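ingest -> validate -> predict -> emit
validate: passed (alphabet ok, no gaps, 281 aa)
predict: started
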Amino acid sequence: MSERIGAALRRAGATLAAAGLEAPEREARLLLRHALGLAPGGRIDPAAVFDPARFDALLARRAAREPMAYITGRQGFWSIDLAVTPAALIPRADSEALITAALAALPERVRVSRMLDLGTGTGALLLAALSEFPRAWGLGVDRSPAAAALAAANARALGLAGRAAFVCADWAAPIAGRFDLVLCNPPYVRRGDIPALMPEVARFEPRAALDGGVDGLDAYRALLPDLGRLLAPAGAAVIELGQGQAESLAGLAHAMGLCIAGLHDDLGGIARAMVLRRRTA
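emit:
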């Protein structure tokens, strides 16, 4: 069976619109380029004839609200391109606020030598930070073996394998030593709010990377007690937080002997990255 590309795109746009997607025509073109093996900006000839079988299989997945990044297997973050799988949360542009915050907190980039990324997932935060701090080495930690393996594969693909290592652990419990920069994007969604998230998130992304417990703060309670021993004297921890969580996170940090050194907004103007340092006498 064959079909003209223009007709297939119109059909796909209608299907995705019926599925509730906000930009169905754009997404149809993205799916088509992926199905045809074209570059993201590759030219599409509407008059060309093709076999739509692979395109239709991808279309069915997107109409079921599977995230585009899981369908294509790729996601851009900061200045790097990453492989993504359902083993890890898809990197978001809002999380780039953590890299901006890290650069502001540690302006002398060549002095940063050791980094730690807790809950590394795809490795997005650690690998983006390594791309900006040229003399640093980093350790990524994740509870999921599949996520740790994915992050390691991304490091190899980006030519950063010699500057990064990845291990499976429950937060920082087995980690010793001190770090100039600690990064973390923990699960912080309140458990009861997860079913109301976008279908792409609630149905497809790993629940363990989302579920922050009843009040959304469980992960912070687990990881904050270790930051004091992990941070070098002039080091900084940059932690992602959810909307409206700044006051609660600040209170937990103060109770653990940490001070708030900065708060950075995401692209939508929401406080997204908190910078913490060891409290000095």
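The longest strand covers residues 231-240.
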